[in-house]
Amino acid sequence: MDAASIFPEGYIASRVVGITVDVAVGIHPWEQHPERPNRLSVDVEMFVPTAMAPAAAEGIIDYDPVRDLVRGWQGRPHVLYLETLAEELLAVCFRDPRVAAARVRLTKTQIFPEAAGAGIEVFRRRPG
User: Fold this and answer.
1) Which of 36, 39, 41, 54 shows the greatest Cβ crowding within 10 Å of its Cβ?
2) What is the pTM of this model?
3) How far is Cα 112 from Cα 92, in angstroms, rounded to an integer?
4) Which domains does the chain possess?
5) For residue 64, what are the contacts with CB-CB under 8 A and spacing of at least 6?
């Protein structure tokens, strides 16, 4: 889904790209050993329509909460699905009422030797 088609008046995107963290996540038996977590690469985009874009006096769209959440995943108990982590990220994105949509990409970077990565992408508009 292209953000320009959703926001024809324009938008500002606040991004965090390529955060890496080791997380116990996955459904395969070899992924369920706490001593061998998966290396994840995390990308997040938060979209704000131009009409709601923050003025200098209002501040920026803060991506620190996204970074803090992802860094906190290291050492947490095992999670079966990347979708669980994606939902946590989306909830953090939508804490800012100006964020009208968000995209989250989670990629396991060392899951298959023949692939650069495997993962999911979720794009969602603000609920309601």
Assistant:
1) 41
2) 0.88
3) 30
4) 3-61+68-125 (3.30.1130.10)
5) none
**For the chain, counts of helices (H) and of strands (E):** 3, 4
The backbone region for 121, taken as left when phi is positive above 0, alpha when psi lies in -120 to 50, beta otherwise, is beta
Mean confidence (pLDDT) of the chain: 89
Residue 110 structure tokens: 């060392």
Exposed e or buried b for every residue in 88-104, given b needs 16+ CB within 10 A? bbbebbbebebbbbbbb
Residue carrying the six token digits 């050492």 = 75
Give yes or no for a contact between 82 and 71, defined as CB atoms under 8 angstroms apart: no
pLDDT at 56 over 80: no
Beta bridge partners of 102: 46, 124
Task: Residue count of the chain, please give it.
Answer: 128
Is-contact 39 82, C-beta < 8 A? no
| Amino acid sitting at position 73 | W
Angle among Cα 22, 28, 30 to the nearest 5 degrees reads: 65
Q: Give the position of tokens 């990308």.
A: 43
